[in-house]
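Notes from the 1:1 (GR / supervisor)

We went over the backlog. Supervisor wanted to see one worked example end to end before approving the batch request, so GR pasted a single chain during the call. The sequence is below; no edits were made to it. Supervisor asked that the structure be written out right there so they could see what the output format looks like.
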Amino acid sequence: MEFRVLELFSGIGGMHYAFKYAQLKGDIVAALDVNTVANAVYAHNYGSKHVKTRNIQSLSVKEVAKLDANMLLMSPPCQPHTRQGLQRDTDDKRSDALTHLCGLIPKCSSLQYILMENVKGFECSQARNQFIAGLEQAGFHWREFILTPTQFNVPNTRHRYYCIARRDQAFSFPGGKIWEQVPFDIIPEQPLSRISEIVEENVPSEFLVPDDVLSKRVLVMDIIHPAQSRSMCFTKGYTHYTEGTGSAFTPLSEEESHRIFEVVKEIDTSSSPEAVKSEEVQQRRLDLLHQIKLRYFTPREVARLMSFPEEFDFPAETTNRQKYRLLGNSINVKVVGELIKILTTV
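Structure output shown during the call:
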């Protein structure tokens, strides 16, 4: 079968790369997103032929039929369901596009395969119930997962909800539950990659953690060393907010950085509150912290941790802040690529 893929909420093209990763015959027939910055990145990597700046609520049954799309890949806005958000679910206007699609899918007879990604927590939402109802009305078989890249030998934690659905063939593994691992050994047993394998050399000083963050927030940062095989989930707030948005990197070993932190803690606990605040003590503390050479992961490194291929790139005009936001809103290419394989074969 040759797949004609409709990519919705297409962002920077993560689903497109995942489809390529799955090595299936076919192509993307249209990629729609309202974000013009994301669409510029998509066009930079894939050309502007199929990417369109569109509100997905305007998508019609007639258009899907004209495209003759038989596969739908999508990652709708997660903000209505995130732990940090208000969790307004279907009452959030950002859910309107998915609500529209839930009514559209049963009317689109050409669609045979669907994959949807969202944030962990979506599985408990009214939006999820609405989506599953649309699938069932259309006669789809469906399976749900909560998976993270570490299960696919990628040293990054990013738990996400996935639903795969197909029309004509039941799956060979049972439903009625949310799978927290893939149901068979599709990924060969091997150690997780070390962070040293993904970091760039000669990273510019602009990626060093600023002194004010180093002085005030370093003790709450998730610091990763070269020999480690883990990193936190990178969100769109990375580098803008300190806590819970992603890890920072030091080229030092754990032992080396631990020794420095012990001296810093000694300064913090052995001096009086007045002495700690003195300029001399603060400078000595900062000089010690500088020795850790703590920096943010570069956009290229974050892209690697999200399994984007090396040929993926940003236009020259894209700022680092925009790059982090776009990557934080994207998907892990390898996880989705492996699920596309399951969707189309198992």
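Supervisor's comment: The chain has a mean pLDDT of 93.
Batch request approved.
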